[in-house]
Design a protein that fits this description.
Blueprint (H helix, E strand, L loop, with lengths): L1 H11 L1 H4 L45 E6 L4 H5 L3 E10 L5 E10 L9 E7 L21 H9 L3 E5 L15 H18 L3 E10 L1 H12 L8 E8 L7 H7 L8 H13 L13 H10 L7 H7 L13 H13 L12 E8 L5 H13 L4 E8 L5 H15 L12
Parallel strand pairs: 4-5, 4-6, 6-7, 7-8, 8-9
Antiparallel strand pairs: 1-2, 2-3, 3-5
């Protein structure tokens, strides 16, 4: 379709528009193969010493390639070894996919039963293949977070998600697919680290918070063979249905322009799309579309500054039918889904959030709690980044669950 080619052109202009922000020119991960390599030659070395990875499986979580992550200060400071892996997963339709990600291994002797595993879900980085954190020297800014978790005695893994790092379409709001990517990252890490336990926790931020929520609901069925102990979802993109009405009524906040652009791009590029981007991208927005969807932007304030010439009206759907289609797509992917949680979950969100208003998260929490999902809730005033207090409190909460503590104050204040 012409409009889909046009959208790809808009998205592709991002690197040209923001070279200073650090767009990567790296090639995507190695091409897919039908069967894994049978060589067991270790592709990495370091402390801790690891045996060759198990490349003999070909199901979800099986490995296609493993290579060392070298020269990263955050991991070196805690004597952790990190690898970039390419592994197999499946989407929500049950079709096989290929995904890339990172796994970091703590130093020392594993505890009885093996190292517990934390699967980390990152926030929005973009919709293009090169937006994968694993292709960045700093792992998209998440190397410090992963190193903290490794230093606390966890094998920690972070998936790039389907369509990032490996050629393909990135299903930005399909939390079911992204949750499966998180589950299979745990399986993949256990093929690399034999001393890793089958006990694991999920931890996600923003987009990763929604993926974590979905992984929790999938853990009892898709995640069979693994033991999910706990999940933490920070500022999860749980239900963005109200975004369609904000766009339709010209009430979109400037801080939401990038979110709207990424959502339209992701939905319009999907294979089964009914979204025509020309119904959402007017001339003024098109000129900045590449910037709004660029994967190298670190400071959200840059988005607001770049879009100074835009108004909410520049994102208004052209027809009521377009608004309804967007609303329908967002509602279809909203959380909570039909399945209950498999493990206790902590949800942390901000009462002051211009991108995802607190009411959106609270609606998802009310729906989940009304059916008995074991959720603890922590509200904070502002959460623009995963700050140290939230990180340490969340890790401590996870440690309590691994230690057998029962969740307290379930659904209080919801």
């Amino acid at each position: 379709m012409i409009w889909r080619s046009t959208l790809r052109a808009f998205v592709a202009t991002g690197c040209a528009l923001v070279v200073a922000a650090g767009c990567s020119a790296k090639e995507s991960a190695p091409p897919q193969s039908d069967r894994p390599a049978r060589s067991l030659e270790a592709p990495f070395a370091g402390v801790p010493e690891l045996p060759p990875p198990d490349m003999t499986d070909d199901g979800p979580g099986s490995l296609i390639s493993v290579e060392p992550v070298a020269g990263n200060n955050d991991f070196e400071q805690v004597d952790a070894v990190a690898m970039r892996m390419v592994y197999r997963s499946t989407n929500t339709a049950g079709n096989p996919t290929t995904v890339s990600g990172i796994v970091a291994v703590p130093p020392g002797i594993p505890p009885p039963g093996g190292w517990p595993v934390v699967s980390f879900g990152h926030d929005l980085t973009g919709v293009r293949t090169e937006c994968a954190p694993s292709l960045s020297d700093t792992l998209g800014g998440y190397a410090s977070v992963l190193s903290v978790m490794a230093d606390r005695g966890y094998v920690v893994t972070m998936t790039d998600y389907e369509g990032l790092g490996i050629e393909g379409q990135h299903p930005l709001l399909d939390s079911g697919a992204l949750g499966r990517n998180m589950i299979d990252a745990v399986r993949a890490s256990r093929h690399i680290v034999p001393a890793a336990s089958n006990r694991w926790a999920a931890f996600g931020l923003g987009q990763g918070g929604a993926a974590t929520w979905a992984a929790n609901t999938e853990a009892g069925t898709y995640g069979v063979g693994l033991d999910l102990v706990a999940a933490v979802a920070v500022s999860p993109l749980a239900n963005l249905t109200p975004l369609a009405d904000l766009m339709d009524t010209d009430k979109l906040d400037p801080a939401q322009y990038r979110l709207a652009a990424l959502i339209v791009s992701s939905l319009a590029l999907a294979q089964d799309t009914r979204i025509n981007p020309e119904d959402f991208i007017n001339e003024k927005a098109a000129a900045l579309w590449g910037y709004l969807t660029n994967c190298a932007v670190v400071d959200p304030a840059q988005i607001v500054a770049a879009a100074t010439g835009l108004t909410a009206a520049d994102f208004k759907p052209r027809t009521p039918e377009a608004t309804q289609q967007l609303r329908s797509d967002l509602q279809r992917m909203a959380l909570p889904g039909p399945a209950n949680l498999s493990a206790p979950m902590l949800v942390v969100y901000a009462t002051l959030d211009p991108v995802v208003p607190a009411g959106w998260t609270e609606e998802a929490l009310r729906n989940a709690c009304s059916r008995g999902d074991p959720i603890e809730v922590k509200k904070i005033g502002d959460l623009s980044v995963l700050n140290d207090i939230v990180l340490w409190d969340s890790v401590a909460w996870i440690q309590g669950r691994f230690g057998g503590q029962q969740p307290m104050n379930v659904c209080v204040g919801v």
